[in-house]
Write a structure and sequence with these properties.
It is built from 3 helices and 4 strands. The chain is of the alpha+beta class.
Length: 108
C-alpha cells in the first residue's frame, strides 16, 4: 500500500489570530431610538403635567425662588421633557396648556 502524505500545511492557532467583531447592542440602539422618537413625537403639540414638592424645584427650575419645601407645585413639560410652565394649581397648568393649544397626555 502507498503511504498518504499531507499536501497542505497544518494550521496553528498562533499563525492566525482570532478575529473579534463586536456586534452593536441592538437593544441599546432600540432604546435610544425609542427615546428620540418619543421626544420628537408631538413636539409643540403634546405636553404633560407633573406634580412635585418645592423641595425638588431647584432641580427642575434652577432660576426659581426659594419656597417652603412642603409646598405642592405643578409643572407643564413639553413632549421632549423641557419645562414650559410652573404653577401652584393643576387648574392653572391645564388652562395654560389649553391657551397654547397643547394636547395633554396621561403618564402612568
Amino acid at each position: 500500500m502507498a503511504e498518504l502524505k499531507r499536501t497542505t500545511p497544518k494550521k496553528t492557532a498562533a499563525a492566525q489570530p482570532a478575529l473579534v467583531v463586536k456586534k452593536p447592542d441592538a437593544a441599546a440602539e432600540a432604546r435610544a431610538a425609542t427615546r428620540e422618537t418619543l421626544a420628537a413625537m408631538g413636539d409643540g403639540e403634546l405636553a404633560y403635567v407633573r406634580a412635585f414638592r418645592a423641595a425638588d424645584l431647584k432641580h427642575i427650575f434652577p432660576q426659581s425662588a426659594e419656597l417652603h419645601p412642603s409646598v405642592q407645585l405643578y409643572a407643564l413639560f413639553g413632549a421632549d421633557g423641557s419645562p414650559l410652565m410652573l404653577a401652584d394649581s393643576r387648574e392653572a397648568i391645564l388652562s395654560g396648556a389649553w391657551q397654547h393649544d397643547l394636547s395633554m397626555a396621561t403618564l402612568h
